[in-house]
Amino acid sequence: MLYYIMLLICLVLLTGIGFRSSGYELFAPITIVPLMFVVAVVLALIGWGSWNQIELQSDGFTIISIGCLAFLIGGILVERFVFNRKLSSTSRESSPVKSTTQSFSNPQLSLYYILGYIALFLILCLAIYVRIKDTYRLGAQMGFHYSGYSDLVSQVRKQTTAINGSNNVKIGQGFSFLEKQLEKFAMAIGYLCSYLLAKALRIWIKDRKNKKNCLLAIFPSILLITNTIFNLVSGGRTQIFYNAAAVFFSLFILGLRNHQNPLKLSRNFIIFLVPAAVIFTALFYTMSGIIGRKTSSGILDYISFYLGAGIPSLQHLLASGAPSLGWGGYTFFGLQTLLYKIGFINHLSSYSIQWVPLAGKGSNIFTTFARYYLDFGYFGVIFLSLLLGALLTWMYRYCLNCKYEFVIPVFMMFAVSLVDLPREDYLYSRFLSSAPILQLILLAFLSFLMTADYKKLAKRIVRPLIQSTSTKNQESRIE
Predict the structure, then answer these.
(1) Which H or E run contains 338?
(2) For the whole model, what pTM was predicted?
């Protein structure tokens, strides 16, 4: 247990450094990543003696500590040299947002936006119908025997998820082409509505007397509930967790854009997040039975294992080893998936590195650093973590001062991975493939449609046209 305690102390120090260097911003990448690893270590200690019987060793301690340190350094370098945020000038009262940055216009219950929400709702309803229909079809094709839909969806998911194999990767395999495209829509709508709900909540908090402000939150809330239903009938909960995280990230970014004090905003979020985490944990535990993953574990054991198993699993992996997949085989799995789809390679391994036993429970999460280490050793852990910290910090800082509102919901697709790095990698291993890139494009398109200020847009387009027309008329008169 000694190395767990040492790692906890190291990560707490890194979290403090990140919090100070970011200007006291709780959701800044250089703060939230080491903080989530702190949570993972605490949960691993809570599970000590039950599901966690793995002693952390020097190699596991070193990989996690230098990985988090490299991530922190990458983010601080971007803060300092790209955005000119000097540590010495960062005070508790300073705002990370430029004084010239304007708040986004408040959403209006116009006919256009209502029709937009209706269209997105109908897409989600269609996605739910097609997913259920395809699940029954695949269950019949595979000859499954089941007691109910939750049992069926669990069996079908095991056979079609990329975690276990490549049975659902190519067109014509697994779920239908229509279902796969609707799944992309559902994911994009989830992130978009998480942002729209956060924006509506901020407006309502500012002016609670205005009943119209309350109505602004109803439409994205309905869509998020419908999106949750889609995820449940699909047999997954991770996207529900991501959508919830996207709401909090959006609330924090919008608060900073409104020139709120970063330290006070962070304090308020900490006070609110504690009870919110308790409620969400209970709901998350309850969902396990709905999607056919009934467990005999208590809620504390279950949640501590789900969120804290990455570090003990990494140590088990280091002791047992893993087969080589060639250069970057684990880290750049998404690129391999793309090559497999287009027929450039004939074999695709499962996404999971392997399954390891933890006191009778199976785990396939090894923290984000496992893939870097297996492919490139300590150099990969340092370089890829540093690059990851730099990229995500640049995205975060850009959102705080960007002129275009649709950028923020697009960033949510990356932001939510920050809270999941103690479990698994995202940017390198999953994003660099055709499906996530198409999801990103779709999210950007839908976000632009639902957040654009069409009055300003019309002025920008029409005014130059009028000016050019009047100029041509004047020239023709002179002639």
Answers:
(1) helix 333-341
(2) 0.89
